[in-house]
Design goal:
114 residues; alpha+beta; Glutaredoxin; four-stranded mixed sheet; 5 helices; globular
Length: 114
């Protein structure tokens, strides 16, 4: 039986509450792969809880409801969606910006990743 939107919202709320760092991710998403590689490169990958939306088929109720619940939490439509302390902090664009500005390690330290 497919998950309801209400149940997906509750589960996403619990995930964000129970894990300091969360990424909504999909293995088929190149931007998600990029952020995971950055996290791996900087030794913070294991600090993240990755919710793999790619485990659900696109267009199914499960996929749609989980995706919508994360979008509501972030107030943004994108993959990946990255959270720290239950709050949306950005997407791969944020990580790219930090990299390009040379502030990635500083930002990771500010978040408590390093």
């Amino acid at each position: 039986m497919a998950i309801t939107l209400e149940a997906a919202r509750k589960e996403v709320t619990q995930i964000l509450k129970n894990h300091k760092f969360v990424q909504l991710s999909a293995s088929w998403c190149p931007d998600c792969v990029y952020t995971k590689n950055i996290f791996q490169k900087h030794g913070v990958y294991d600090k993240f809880y990755f919710f793999e939306i790619g485990n659900y088929n696109r267009g199914t109720k499960d996929f749609d409801n989980y995706y919508l619940a994360f979008q509501e939490a972030a107030k943004k439509k994108n993959l990946p969606l990255i959270f720290a302390d239950g709050k949306f902090i950005g997407t791969e664009h944020t990580i790219h910006d930090w990299e390009n500005k040379g502030t990635l390690e500083k930002e990771f330290k500010n978040l408590g990743l390093l």
